[in-house]
Specification:
Blueprint (H helix, E strand, L loop, with lengths): L1 H39 L3 E6 L2 E6 L6 E2 L5 H6 L6 E2 L9 H4 L4 E2 L9 H6 L3 E4 L7 H7 L4 E4 L11 H19 L3 H21 L5 E8 L2 E5 L10 H5 L2 E2 L17 H7 L3 E6 L13 H6 L8 H4 L3 E3 L10 H15 L2
Parallel strand pairs: 3-6, 4-5, 6-7, 8-10, 8-11, 11-12
Antiparallel strand pairs: 1-2, 8-9
Helix pairs in contact: 6-7, 7-12
């Protein structure tokens, strides 16, 4: 009888131990899963900008963007901004139309106090606002401030490589910050395809010239250095119709006479309408009218044959990766005719 009771007791004790062990394992597994889940959702990401490596919160609160290359990308992704420089943004930007987005103004006389008052977790600097980088960092010492001004990058051998690498790197960085990695990768893939298509459409021998139209005047956008068009001579191997010494990236183009432009007789003309991008310019003459009505250009091959490519109207204030995809696709479709 004692032996039977002892056997029963041992059996019950074994079951109790097993139950405790299972409970412990289940709790242990739950703890492991919780840690695993926590580890897959990063709260910060390391971003390399023009100044080095910056730790940036993922999906930051009260984000502010000052870089014209980022506005369209962020808008397409539905990212909320606390403030933006509305005076130098496309008039049809969702941020310009949104009264809850405070207006910092323009880069010449910005209201930087708005940035401090917004208490942002992230400020994206670049291009026109790059010179305010240090001042902004002092205004918001607790915020992550990143400078996507890839014009100062030393990683590229040519302005063309600089443009391509900069747009791609910036897009991937924005994808990491705002948890839009797949969307960023797709944009980069579309960008690469647009470049390849535009490159294949050029015959390698036609001469090309880039110009900028502002205030009814035609400025020369120099190969390699001119705004928007310059780097494309590197990217696509265009043969320049005209080259000059001491070329600049001035926003109105280099001061070259229309007669000199006409004398170079380009086969193709690529045009940036600067005024069309500035919402406050209501009486500006469209670039197409300026080109079409220029007596000096009427016999130029590009004009007489209608071999002209116009950048999207908002390009001057919206140099996003989407804009360049559109430009490249337009180049491909026009040159391939």
């Amino acid at each position: 009888m004692r032996k039977f009771k002892l056997t029963v007791f041992l059996a019950v004790f074994a079951l109790m131990l097993a139950a405790c062990s299972n409970s412990s394992n289940e709790n242990g597994k739950a703890g492991t899963n919780e840690k695993a889940n926590d580890s897959t959702v990063a709260s910060t990401v390391e971003i390399t900008d023009a100044h080095g490596t910056v730790t940036v919160p993922v999906n930051p609160k009260n984000a502010i963007a000052l870089d014209s290359r980022t506005f369209e990308t962020l808008a397409d992704w539905g990212i909320k901004l606390a403030a933006a420089p509305k005076d130098v943004m496309p008039a049809d930007s969702p941020y310009v139309k949104d009264d809850s987005v405070q207006n910092i103004g323009n880069h010449r006389e910005p209201n930087l106090e708005i940035i401090a008052a917004a208490d942002p977790e992230l400020v994206i600097v670049g291009q026109r606002f790059a010179s305010y980088y240090e001042e902004i960092k002092k205004l918001v010492p607790n915020a992550a401030v990143i400078d996507l001004n890839f014009d100062v990058s030393e990683k590229a051998a040519t302005p063309g490589e600089n443009l391509i690498n900069g747009l791609k790197d910036s897009t991937i960085s924005l994808g990491k910050i705002f948890d839009k990695n797949e969307e960023a990768k797709q944009l980069v893939a579309d960008f690469d395809k647009a470049i390849a298509d535009a490159k294949s459409a050029y015959n390698g021998s036609d001469t090309v010239m880039g110009v900028e139209v502002s205030g009814g005047n035609i400025g020369f956008s120099a190969p390699h250095f001119g705004r928007v068009w310059g780097p494309m001579f590197d990217i696509f191997g265009w043969k320049p119709a005209l080259e000059i010494n001491n070329a600049t990236s001035d926003h109105k183009g280099d001061d070259i006479s229309v007669e000199a432009i006409a004398q170079s007789n380009p086969d193709w003309l690529f045009v940036l309408d600067r005024d069309a991008a500035i919402s406050s310019t209501t009486d500006a003459v469209p670039a197409q009218d300026v080109i079409d009505n220029s007596p000096a250009l009427k016999n130029v091959t590009a004009v007489s044959k209608g071999q002209i490519v116009y950048a999207p109207n908002d390009t001057y204030t919206n140099e996003s990766i989407q804009t360049f995809i559109e430009v490249f696709e337009n180049i491909k479709s026009t040159l391939a005719k």
